[in-house]
Specification:
With about 325 residues, the protein is mostly helical. About 75% of the residues lie in helices and about 0% in strands. The relative contact order is 0.12.
């Protein structure tokens, strides 16, 4: 009797797996058809600027002397990669990204937990948290520049042990800290909303089961909540890391790149707009694009999210 029923059970399992696999493939095909129009539109809008930048990057081309354009092939890339300023700027850019995303992840998760557990006034609280994200970045940059001002700002008076005349923008480290604070204040609401969506996918039954088994709050957080939010955390970190790596507005407003606070995007702006070096500026923009792709690949590999498992199919 055992030898008869065991193969049937295996066949049932294979059949169930085949049904789940067919459903996953059908969902993938449906998803591809749904996103295809948007992808085509994005390619039409972005393909020409990208190809144009790649084309200009092989020239020694300045708008100050447009008739003296000369083909230099990869020389612009070699010049950029051999310049210590490029690597110093890359380090500062990575510092912006790592510091802001890490702090936003922690604060955003706390906000998400509070919003998820609220019983009353959920709409008011969520709307209030979104206010900083709704403010234009340039406006918030000017606001924080005023707040950190050594003459009429209020930050120095709020922090114990700091002189009222301390100049936040007089050195690299405090200037970077001020820029990071302004970035964190502005974009933490975006992170919290993405994490809130992930919290909504965590089964309350699993949390209650862990509580019945005697798990503490920290154990439930680390063993139940966070593992089931891995996909949402990956999306939140991915979106914010790519956006933080391309930081420009706050730097432009608060320091204008002074005291070694320039990012790669700001360095590209200086080469292209201020110095009119279209060839070098285009090469820097291509390097920025490639580094963004590398960061996205690293984050996806780091989290190793199984999307089928995240949909509770496997």
């Amino acid at each position: 009797m055992t030898t008869v029923t065991a193969p049937r059970a295996d066949a049932t399992n294979r059949g169930g797996g085949k049904v789940a696999s067919d459903r996953a493939r059908a969902e993938n095909r449906l998803g591809q058809r749904l996103v295809a129009p948007a992808i085509v539109l994005m390619l039409i809008v972005t393909a020409f600027p990208m190809l144009r930048a790649l084309w200009l990057s092989v020239f020694n081309y300045s708008l100050a002397a447009p008739d003296d354009r000369e083909v230099v092939w990869a020389q612009n890339y070699l010049t950029a990669l051999s310049d210590p300023l490029f690597w110093k700027t890359t380090v500062i850019t990575v510092a912006y990204m790592v510091v802001t995303v890490a702090i936003e992840l922690v604060i955003g998760f706390v906000f998400a937990m509070v919003m998820h557990r609220l019983v009353f006034a959920r709409g008011i609280v969520r709307t209030s948290i979104l206010i900083p994200y709704g403010i234009i970045t340039v406006v918030s940059g000017f606001t924080w520049q005023f707040a950190f001002s050594s003459t009429n700002g209020f930050v120095n008076g709020w922090i114990p042990g700091i002189d009222d005349t301390f100049n936040w923008f007089g050195d690299t480290t405090p200037a970077v800290i001020a820029i990071c604070i302004s970035e964190i204040w502005k974009t933490t609401p975006f992170m919290s909303l993405l994490l809130l969506a992930g919290l909504a996918q965590v089964s309350e039954d699993m949390i209650e089961a862990a509580k019945v088994d005697g798990a503490t709050w920290w154990q439930r957080l680390w063993k139940v909540v966070l593992p089931n939010m891995r996909a949402a955390i990956m999306v939140a970190v991915l979106f914010r890391a790519l956006d933080a790596y391309r930081i420009f507005d706050n730097i432009f407003v608060m320091t204008n790149g002074a005291e070694d606070t320039a990012s790669i995007s700001f360095l590209t702006y200086r080469q292209t707009i201020e110095q009119l070096q279209l060839g070098m500026g285009s090469a820097l923009s291509v390097l920025l694009f490639l580094s963004v792709l590398l960061i996205a690949w690293l984050i996806i590999k780091l989290f190793r999210v199984d999307l089928a498992q995240a949909r509770q199919e496997g």
